[in-house]
Design goal:
single chain; 278 residues
Length: 278
C-alpha cells in the first residue's frame, strides 16, 4: 500500500460512531445553553445539508430552523437544492432575499467593490440575519464550515465562519462527503461541485487552485502527523500545491483566533483563566 493510500485510509471514518458523537454534541450544546433549537443557513451545498441533518438527528426537525438567504447573483439551483435538502429532512424553510440589504450599501457608498468584497458582504449579511433569527427563536446558530475550509482560511471572518456551535469543524471535506452519503442525503447535493455561490460559475476548487481530496491529505499529514512541507512533497504531492496550501494556512490563521486583546492584567480574557463553569 502506498503512502497516499494509507493517508486516504486514515481519513476514512467510522461513520456510525462519528454521527453518534456529533448528534450528541449538538444535543448537549443546546441543552447546556438552555436554548430551544438551532438556526442554520441552507446554501444548497453538502456542508450545510450535513449540519442540518445532524441537528435533526439531535433535536428533531421541529427544532431546526432552516433559512435560505439568496442574493440576486445567486444561482437558482442553490435555492432548489436547499429546498430538496429541507424536504428530505422534514424542515420548514424561510426564504429571505439579502439583495436589498447588500446592494443598498454598495449602491450608495461603494460603486465597484469587486467580487471578493461583495462576497464577504453577502456572507456577513447572512450571518447577521441568522443571529437575529436565533435571538427571536431562542436558538443557537449552527455552523457549517468544515476543517479543510477553516485551515485554508476559505471563509469570511464574522461571516460563514461565525457560529454558536459547529459540528463540522473537525471534519475534513471528504469526511463531510462520507457522512453525507452515510446519512443518505440527496445525491445531487453530495455530488455537486463545491461552491460558495459568490458569483456565477464560481467553484471552490477553481478558486483555491487545487482539489479538496489533495488538500485534505496534505493538511492531514501536516496537522495530524506534524510533517513539514518538504516531507509532504517527498511523498509525491505536487510541490506547487503544497506550497500554496502552506501559504493559505499561514496567511489565514487570524481567522481562527478570537479577537486580539491587549494584556494589562493577570486575568486577560481568552489568554489566561476562565471563570469555572459546569
Amino acid at each position: 500500500m502506498s503512502a497516499k493510500d494509507r493517508v486516504r485510509e486514515k481519513l476514512h471514518l467510522n461513520a456510525e460512531l462519528a454521527v453518534q458523537a456529533l448528534v450528541s454534541f449538538i444535543k448537549d450544546a443546546v441543552e447546556t445553553s438552555r436554548s430551544e433549537g438551532v438556526v442554520v443557513g441552507l446554501s444548497g451545498g453538502v456542508d450545510s445539508a450535513l449540519s442540518a441533518a445532524l441537528a435533526v438527528g439531535a433535536l428533531g426537525p421541529e427544532n431546526v430552523h432552516a433559512f435560505m438567504l439568496p442574493h440576486q447573483t445567486s444561482s437558482p439551483d442553490s435555492v432548489t437544492d436547499a429546498e430538496e435538502v429541507a424536504a428530505a429532512l422534514g424542515l420548514t424553510t424561510y426564504n429571505i432575499d439579502i439583495s436589498p440589504m447588500v446592494d443598498a450599501y454598495f449602491d450608495h457608498y461603494e460603486s465597484d467593490p469587486g467580487k471578493v468584497r461583495l462576497g464577504n458582504k453577502m456572507a456577513r449579511e447572512r450571518m447577521s440575519i441568522l443571529y437575529d433569527q436565533a435571538k427571536k427563536l431562542r436558538g443557537l446558530v449552527l455552523g457549517t464550515s468544515n476543517k479543510t475550509e477553516i485551515l485554508l482560511g476559505y471563509s469570511t471572518i464574522f461571516g460563514d465562519n461565525a457560529s454558536s456551535i459547529n459540528p463540522l469543524g473537525d471534519l475534513y471535506k471528504q469526511q463531510v462527503w462520507q457522512l453525507a452519503t452515510y446519512l443518505d442525503l440527496p445525491a445531487r447535493i453530495v455530488d455537486k461541485k463545491p461552491s460558495a455561490d459568490l458569483w456565477p460559475g464560481q467553484t471552490d476548487e477553481d478558486e483555491l487552485g487545487f482539489d479538496y481530496p489533495t488538500a485534505d491529505e496534505v493538511l492531514y499529514l501536516m496537522f495530524n502527523f506534524g510533517l513539514s512541507d518538504e516531507e509532504v512533497i517527498a511523498l509525491d504531492y505536487p510541490e506547487t500545491v503544497v506550497r500554496r496550501i502552506v501559504t493559505l494556512e499561514e496567511n489565514n490563521r487570524f481567522k481562527r483566533r478570537l479577537m486580539l486583546i491587549a494584556r494589562l492584567s493577570d486575568s486577560a480574557i481568552n489568554l489566561d483563566r476562565e471563570i469555572p463553569r459546569d
